[in-house]
């Protein structure tokens, strides 16, 4: 009997051209579709009514992407089976049987993103003050790459700025996000934090009918899709084996990057200190 199954999907997005499938380039959905078809969980995405909670850009990561599809083999549509056909940089870690009309995108109440950035040269208090102006319903046309026919009005429910060591973490929750919206918000907050723009400028940016200015998005490698909240509670079944396996695989990546950070630091010649004779 056909069932509709939802999955929570996590991935390290560095090697992929975003989550949405594209021809001739690696994407998250491309890898997932191959896995689901190889396992005969779905015949193809269209006939399975495959829907995701949203797209993420090239290089963006996730622990909370939600996808749903119809399948005649719900017993196979579980994380440890699906993960056997996925690359190590993509894994599912929870699943649920949902109603036949469940739409991960349209049924979402809010999305939560986390942006992690490095640096200690900015004024964290200015960033926190500026972030408060973003909360509420605004026209974010100056903070996105507009798409024709799509409203740029969104409601940001929460922004939390915290410091961990020499890293700054920015949590943002909204009803939904526009293309590159989080990364352009981060750019604006950093400009205020570095003192290159005043907080009043950020207020002006929220009135695109009177003030327009283009922003470069912050680098994609610092952005994580953390979670998606829904209109009704979903009874997720977490796969502890898949979570433990992913943690062990990521630990190897963590060691590699920590060592590489030190290696790169040693590859940069140190400046010599000159003293007067």
Keywords:
alpha+beta; Alpha-Beta Plaits; 10-stranded mixed sheet
Q: Would you give an account of this structure?
A:
- The chain is of the alpha+beta class and about 280 residues long.
- It folds into two domains: about 5-105 and about 230-255, Pseudouridine synthase I, catalytic domain, N-terminal subdomain (Alpha-Beta Plaits, 2-Layer Sandwich); about 110-225, Alpha-Beta Plaits.
- Helix content is about 25%, strand content about 25%.
- Strands 1, 2, 3, 4, 5, 6, 7, 8, 9 and 10 form a ten-stranded mixed β-sheet that branches.
- Helix 3 packs across helix 4 (about 180-195).
- It is globular, with a radius of gyration of 21 Å.
What is the N-to-C order of secondary-structure elements (H for helix, E for strand)?
EHEEHEEHEEEHHEEH
Uncertain spans, ≥5 residues at pLDDT below 50?
A: none
Shape descriptor reads globular
Distance between the termini: 87 Å
Q: Tell me, what is the CATH class of the largest domain?
A: Alpha Beta
Q: β content, as a range?
A: 25-35%
Number of helices: 6
The helix fraction, in percent, is 25-40%
CATH superfamily of the largest domain: Pseudouridine synthase I, catalytic domain, N-terminal subdomain
* Average pLDDT rating: 93
User: Main sheet?
Assistant: 10 strands, mixed
Q: How many structurally independent domains?
A: 2
Alpha carbon gyration radius: 21 Å
* CATH fold-level name of the largest domain: Alpha-Beta Plaits
Tell me the total number of β-strands.
10
**CATH architecture title of the largest domain:** 2-Layer Sandwich
Class based on secondary structure composition and strand pairing? alpha+beta
């Amino acid at each position: 009997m056909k069932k509709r199954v939802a999955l929570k999907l996590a991935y390290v997005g560095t090697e992929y051209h975003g989550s949405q499938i594209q021809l001739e380039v690696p994407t998250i959905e491309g890898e997932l579709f191959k896995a689901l078809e190889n396992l005969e969980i779905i015949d193809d995405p269209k006939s399975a009514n495959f829907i995701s909670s949203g797209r993420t850009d090239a290089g963006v990561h996730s622990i909370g992407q939600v996808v749903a599809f119809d399948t005649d083999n719900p017993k196979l549509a579980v994380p440890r089976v699906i993960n056997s056909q996925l690359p190590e940089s993509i894994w599912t870690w929870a699943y649920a049987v949902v109603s036949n009309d469940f739409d991960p995108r349209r049924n979402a109440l809010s999305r939560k993103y986390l942006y992690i950035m490095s640096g200690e040269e900015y004024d964290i208090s200015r960033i926190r003050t500026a972030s408060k102006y973003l909360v509420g319903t605004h026209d974010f046309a100056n903070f996105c790459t507009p798409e024709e026919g799509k409203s740029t009005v969104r409601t940001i429910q929460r922004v939390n700025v915290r410091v961990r060591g020499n890293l700054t973490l920015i949590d943002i929750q909204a009803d939904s996000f526009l293309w590159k919206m989080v990364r352009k918000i981060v750019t604006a907050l950093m400009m205020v934090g570095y003192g290159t723009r005043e907080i009043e400028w950020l207020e002006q940016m929220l009135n695109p009918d009177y003030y327009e200015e283009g922003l470069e998005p912050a680098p994609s490698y610092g952005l994580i899709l953390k979670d998606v909240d829904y209109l009704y509670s979903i009874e997720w079944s977490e796969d502890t084996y898949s979570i433990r396996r992913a943690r062990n695989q990521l630990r190897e990546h963590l060691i590699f990057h920590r060592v590489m950070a030190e290696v790169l630091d040693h590859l940069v010649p140190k400046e010599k200190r000159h003293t007067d004779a």
